[in-house]
């Protein structure tokens, strides 16, 4: 049995925690009658599942890819008298979609949203000794009020939608804290003054100590009386910039009374110039690849640390310096390795599935997006936010336009340190970067289209966008292109053929020629600040990756690398 034992969130880690991954009792609840049938009390469980892998995955031990409107989990947990002296929180890394937790028959909390971490204070429901933890997850994949990302609404995967994920898909654990504790904090790197700002929230009153270390050396420390909210600065005696390919990381330790949280940060500044992306004040061309975070055996969940690291390595080996983490919120340990390896990423929300004409979507989106911004704010590898992707549909109430405007305002209000793209691929309403999706397979046509940007300051509106947005002199980012296939073969997906964008290449030579032509057309244009190639690896029937679904290379990756870094920016 695969058992993920590492702490799931290294950027906010306490020593006192208990991993609940591994074997749980499991039950289907197709009629959503489990509450009446006694599942809350632990009755009627007839299967076993390996948490945190979703029941659709083979790693879960179940492998059921049919629709599951409701599923239940049960585990007995031992709690000591000492652990009950403070607070006990149950933390769920992610569960799709509407999740309620019961402890010893009592409901301790309910969370709606399939992509972000959440926790409940379960102290009052616990007793010394054995405790029954039951989790119920409802997942209405057909609902247009539920963000589903690339999960397929039909039984068979098709197009660019893939196998679904139901219920728990990230680590579940207990966290033990004193009554006086650190709730949350944000770190603001200030590379110009060799300092950081730190703000946060506390429960209780006492002495707060914040210490930064680099390679074990203390490089800054402050202590002061604090309660509720705090906002302070910390000067650093050593400045080590977080750079691409070299993720220099500082350790950060916060101590408040008897509570101690270990974290880390990177000293970097991400911003937009007139036409270029700037990292630490220097122009850097974003050579990104689309990473959708799917795995043949775990679906949404990587089997282990090596699997996570391998995907980043595969991208770096191919000459990319980062990724769009596409239509999915990636687990914190993926971001942790991006932080350590100096690999920049764009954080994105899995907005596909929403009916934008329904105003109720606004509240659903806002609640979960704020959770995501809060959870991932401190990761230096995240250089920008993209709350939506390809919001092209119109609606009679014009809610789409209002929602995108609100999403941008909320994002910038919570995080003014990073650029924000309102919706990747259009229609843009308000954005820091004018990004486009362009799957033209003709290199000459692609080059000519964007040469007009240089010569005429004109960006052509594509047919499906005309009349909805106008270029306003923002930096330009070709955030999806390519998607080139080769020797596309039929797969077992209910009789549908596998596919790629445009006509598949008939030979390696044809592929390399097209890849080079399309990429050169973007690299040669001084008005474009970055590209994102579709995609890093095949996913089920979508066969346009540089690697296959099992991460085996389909091409000579050294050739791809040379094309990508031909005009490498200053970070190389």
Fold and architecture overview:
By secondary structure, this protein is an alpha+beta fold. The protein has seven helices and 29 strands. A seven-stranded parallel β-sheet has the order 24-23-22-21-29-28-27, covered by helices on one side. Helix 3 (360-376) runs parallel beside helix 4 and helix 5 (443-456) runs parallel beside helix 6. The longest helix has 17 residues, at 360-376. The relative contact order is 0.11.
Alpha-carbon distance between the two ends: 41 Å
Number of strands: 29
Strands in their spatial order, largest beta sheet? 24-23-22-21-29-28-27
Mean pLDDT: 94
Number of helices: 7
Major β-sheet annotation:
7 strands, parallel
Task: Evaluate the radius of gyration.
Answer: 24 Å
Could you name the ranges where pLDDT drops below 50 across 5 or more consecutive residues?
none
Tell me which oligomeric state these chains represent. single chain
What percentage of amino acids are in beta strands? Answer: 25-35%
- State the secondary-structure class: alpha+beta
Helix content: 10-25%
Shape field: globular
Reconstruct the topology from this structure.
Layout: E1 17-19, E2 22-28, E3 47-51, E4 70-79, E5 87-92, E6 95-96, E7 98-103, E8 106-112, E9 118-121, E10 129-138, E11 167-168, E12 172-177, E13 181-190, E14 195-214, E15 217-235, E16 250-256, E17 259-265, E18 270-272, E19 277-279, E20 282-283, E21 286-291, H1 305-317, E22 322-325, H2 332-341, E23 344-348, H3 360-376, E24 382-386, E25 388-389, H4 399-414, E26 423-424, E27 434-438, H5 443-456, E28 476-482, H6 508-523, E29 528-534, H7 557-564
Parallel strand pairs: 21-22, 21-29, 22-23, 23-24, 25-26, 27-28, 28-29
Antiparallel strand pairs: 1-12, 2-3, 2-4, 4-10, 5-9, 5-12, 6-11, 7-8, 7-10, 13-14, 14-15, 14-16, 16-17, 18-19, 19-20
Helix pairs in contact: 1-2, 3-4, 5-6, 6-7
